[in-house]
């Protein structure tokens, strides 16, 4: 094992895998045999992702793949390429557009310019806590705000499923149990908007590639990583930074998208398109049933390992969500969106704000 690299370990998320069948071996069969009983030919689609099948994200994507097969009565078969085996995560959007894969995972944060309108979710730090409410906001946004889907269409892709991950948390090498403890610490985040917010609470925001975060924490190059809780635990960052500060009220407002090449989509039959819609509904429900238990298991595992786990108070979450930099981020985003040709970015923010406020009961 390379010195400083995270150790592979079995995380509690593997518990959920007991009810999700392994499809790695099946992929080879799918690629080689695409005839249905009676000689009908199945539609085989390739799918590129940058995650492994045995973690929270992989579970979400596996459930969707399985539901797509079920809802189409086996007429749609998906061959997954896990763990960036076909393309790196940042290459997938263009790769699906260009037909390297028929379908692919898209993280909006990877494309701050190409998916600027879609990045508007990140301008709202406070959002619904329950998985079901988060999905309601995300799905309503894509149905009620055409500019979001239009921006993806300009990249030659269409959203056929989306899911969410666990809320924001900071994992620290130092004893931090309050928002005030962020002051003066070097904290890594992936989103430019959240780097701005970390700066506003007195931290020194830093950008470090995800693959280097473990070693950066281990060597003291940084003091913390601020990201989704499941990502922290999956990468064993809490092992070298065992002070975990969970901001459950901060919903990690990034919908993780599964997209399909638009030309490929247009070539599907109406029945196949209907199977996609039904698979979205059923997969979302099945994953939601597992989500809460997976969150609880991660927290329990961290406590059992002797890590210090602290939950932010509502007052701390409100303070973070109402920092002056939140408004400044939105003004910057509006200006950049107009420069990029958006006609009414203010309306996009207002619609999204309304959906989030409704989910919070405001």
From TrEMBL:
Signal peptide: 1-42
Pfam families noted in UniProt: DctP
Keywords for this protein: Signal
Tree of life domain: Bacteria
Biological process annotations from GO: transmembrane transport
PANTHER family assigned to the protein according to its UniProt record, in alphabetical order: PTHR33376, SIALIC ACID-BINDING PERIPLASMIC PROTEIN SIAP
Protein name: TRAP-type C4-dicarboxylate transport system substrate-binding protein
Organism, as annotated: Acuticoccus sediminis
């Amino acid at each position: 094992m390379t010195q400083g690299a995270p150790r592979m370990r079995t995380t509690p998320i593997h518990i959920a895998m007991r009810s999700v069948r392994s499809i790695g071996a099946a992929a080879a069969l799918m690629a080689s045999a695409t005839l249905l009983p009676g000689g009908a030919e199945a539609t085989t689609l390739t799918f590129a992702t940058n995650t492994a099948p045995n973690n929270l994200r992989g579970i979400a994507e596996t459930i969707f793949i399985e539901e797509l097969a079920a809802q189409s009565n086996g007429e749609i078969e998906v061959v997954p390429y896990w763990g960036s085996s076909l393309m790196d995560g940042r290459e997938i959007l263009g790769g699906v557009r260009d037909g390297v894969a028929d379908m692919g995972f898209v993280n909006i944060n990877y494309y701050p310019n190409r998916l600027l309108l879609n990045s508007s979710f990140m301008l709202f730090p406070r959002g619904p806590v329950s998985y079901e409410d988060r999905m309601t906001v995300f799905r309503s946004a894509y149905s009620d705000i055409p500019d979001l889907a239009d921006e993806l269409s300009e990249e030659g892709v269409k959203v056929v499923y989306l899911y969410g991950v666990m809320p924001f948390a900071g994992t620290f090498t130092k004893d931090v149990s309050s928002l005030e403890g962020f002051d003066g610490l070097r904290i890594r985040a992936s989103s430019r908007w959240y780097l701005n917010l970390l700066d506003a609470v007195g931290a020194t925001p830093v950008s470090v590639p995800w693959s280097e975060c473990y070693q950066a924490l281990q060597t003291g190059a940084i003091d913390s990583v601020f990201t989704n809780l499941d990502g922290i635990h999956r990468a064993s960052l809490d092992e070298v930074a065992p002070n975990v500060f969970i901001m459950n009220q901060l919903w990690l407002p990034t919908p993780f998208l599964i997209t399909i090449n638009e030309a490929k989509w247009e070539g599907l039959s109406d029945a196949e398109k209907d199977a996609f819609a039904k698979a979205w509904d059923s997969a979302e429900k099945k994953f939601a049933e597992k989500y809460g238990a997976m969150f609880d298991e991660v927290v329990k595992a961290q406590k059992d390992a002797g890590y210090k786990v602290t939950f932010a108070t509502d007052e701390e979450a409100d303070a973070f969500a109402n920092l002056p930099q939140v408004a400044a981020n939105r003004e910057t985003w509006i200006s950049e969106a107009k420069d990029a040709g958006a006609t009414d970015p203010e309306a996009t923010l207002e619609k999204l704000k309304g959906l989030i406020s409704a989910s919070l009961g405001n």
